[in-house]
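Example record for the data management plan.
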Amino acid sequence: MLQVTDISVFFQKNTSNIPDDHFETPKKITVIESWTAIRKGKSAVIKGRLLGHPDYPDGVKMMTSTVHRYLAGDGHVYIKTQNSLYELGQPLKTTDFQKLERMTQ
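Corresponding structural encoding:
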């Protein structure tokens, strides 16, 4: 079972200077920005804002289903859920507790 801290540590070890204006990947994979990994029951999920999703407007808040695995390539980190593949953009700044509070309600 994946742990929340596993995802965050993996992200830190496998990203390379992703710019703040990173909105699109070469393969048009949906990006989750301002994300945080949280525990939901015994599983890890990601909460954040979508960018580049074909069915939702940019910036919409979302929560993934259970993260089954994560992988890295070319300085980018990806998560795989049951039906989707996402790229992780910039994580939520841990000092921004007000924003985190709003996202978890």
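Summary line stored alongside the record: The CA atoms of residues 67 and 81 lie 5 Å apart.
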